[in-house]
Amino acid sequence: VSANQDLQDLIKPQKVEFRSLNFNSTLHWQPGRAREARDTVYFVQYKVYGQSTWQNKDSCWGIQNNVCDLTNETSDIQEPYYGRVKAASAGVYSDWSLSCRFTPWRETVIGPPMVTVVHSNRSIILKLQAPRSPYRRRRGSKIPMTNYYDLLYQVFIINNLLNEQHKVLVYEGKDKVIKIEALRPGVSYCVVAKMYVPMLDRSSAYSSRQCTVL
């Protein structure tokens, strides 16, 4: 019995946590201390905070991966959820390992916007597109993150004559098409943007740089 108890403890999953980008939410964990237990499989359950019964995640039942996609199971984004994982090896099952409470609306990381440089003639015209969630409208298109939050676009200009770190905020607001004017011809300008969530005082990462010479 003690050998089984030892194995139970050794294979118990560690560091169970939700990670979420634009509401694409996955449960991650690390294997237990028994690194040599190659045949370990994992079982995942989830529930809404306050519910008494756990639900099995069928596609993550007896898997060898250390990650399980719970995007569809956490689609009520204001609800708090828990996930838990147990391991089995050589017919021995570990206890469950529990995640912290996870509320998608509060905790998902919002990604940067897409930026397209349309035109330049002493000015740069930018088209901005907010990131999209995995959830779909009835007609099938993915719902943008602007439906869930009051989001602002922040646009920064990098003049390549200056150093890369020197970003100047040239626009903050909700317009999807903006014009940056009074720029010098023959100078290379690069633009990056990010999403800002005033209510949570959080920003996305920067978008990839878009550069143009006027």
Automatic annotation (TrEMBL):
Which Gene Ontology terms cover its molecular function? cytokine receptor activity
Q: From what superkingdom does this record's organism come?
A: Eukaryota
Q: Which gene encodes it?
A: Il22ra2
Please state what the protein is called: Interleukin-22 receptor subunit alpha-2
Protein's UniProt keywords contain Cell wall biogenesis/degradation: no
Give all residue intervals belonging to the Fibronectin type-III domain: 12-107
The organism named in the record is Chloroceryle aenea
Q: What does this protein's UniProt record list under function? A: Receptor for IL22. Binds to IL22, prevents interaction with the functional IL-22R complex and blocks the activity of IL22 (in vitro). May play an important role as an IL22 antagonist in the regulation of inflammatory responses.
Q: Which family would the database say this protein is a member of?
A: Belongs to the type II cytokine receptor family.
